Amino acid sequence: MNTELIISMGLVGVMLSMLGMGLLIAYYGSSKTRNVGFTFLIVGAGLAYYLAEIGMDAYPNQSFMNGMLAFVGGMIGGIIGIIVFLIAIIKS
Amino acid sequence: MDMSTHNLDIMAFFVSMLIVGIGVALLATGIFTSYFGAGKSQKIGFVLLFFGAVTLTLIIDMAFGTIGVMPDDVFLRPAFEDALVSGVSALSGMVIGMFVILFVLMKVDTVEDLEDLDLDDLEDLDLDEELKKLEEELKQDDDGEEAENDDGNSEEKE
């Protein structure tokens, strides 16, 4: 159970980095670097397809969705914490 | 793919990790601000550090019931552990992905990108000659200013 969750959520993290960095590198890079950016994008899209279509059969659906919920919650919580820090620093 | 949300355990997964995220962010920013800040900023850093530590302590108490201050049935222990594992795994996956990207970018030969730059103009430049021209221009400017100052002084005397 936990191993499947760790693998699936780890793949989600890798997918997000590949898509995010791939977009940036493909847009701002030139010639060879740009091609590498497109490769990252394709790898990210492949991982997304795997998680959405094939991986769902391998990983328990509900626990994966709950894991995504936890990840999104953690990210939003982190952003709120940083906003609180910025408000405290700017207001002082 | 089943994307239905009616079975999701929002309280155990989303809310618990939201509070953990706020606590970790407050703790991390508090540590940095209290260490690198000075005067008022340092005090704010200590306050952030305190609130971060309190938030994390309370959520651990709510999930595991180790301290006994908060009701320990707010977050179920197995669900909270799963949520924590999910969040940490996803963050680890992101870090691994970043390292892969960095590794690939460092391994890829990006000399072609530099060749795209038009360096012919720079190669044709004779730097010594350009430096001499600049020095001459500066001398001429200085001479001009001195001549103007001399004219001003002689007019004042008259």
Task: Give an overview of the whole structure.
The complex is a heterodimer of chains A (92) and B (158). Chain A has helices at 2-28, 32-58, 61-91. Chain A is mainly alpha-helical and 92 residues long. In chain A, helix 1 runs antiparallel to helix 2. The termini of chain A are far apart. Chain B has two domains: 10-115, no CATH class; 120-149. In chain B, helix 1 (10-36) packs antiparallel against helix 2. Helix content of chain B is 78%, strand content 0%. The model of chain B has no long low-confidence stretch (mean pLDDT 81). Chain B is elongated. At the A-B interface, helix 1, helix 2 and helix 3 of A face helix 1, helix 2 and helix 3 of B.
Strand content of chain B: under 5%
Distance between the terminal alpha carbons of chain B, to the nearest Å? 98 Å
Radius of gyration of chain B: 33 Å
Helix coverage percent of chain B: over 70%
Question: In total, how many domains does the architecture of chain A comprise?
Answer: 1
Secondary-structure element order of chain A, N to C: HHH
Give a concise summary.
Chain A has 92 residues and is mostly helical. Helices cover 92% and strands 0% of the residues of chain A.
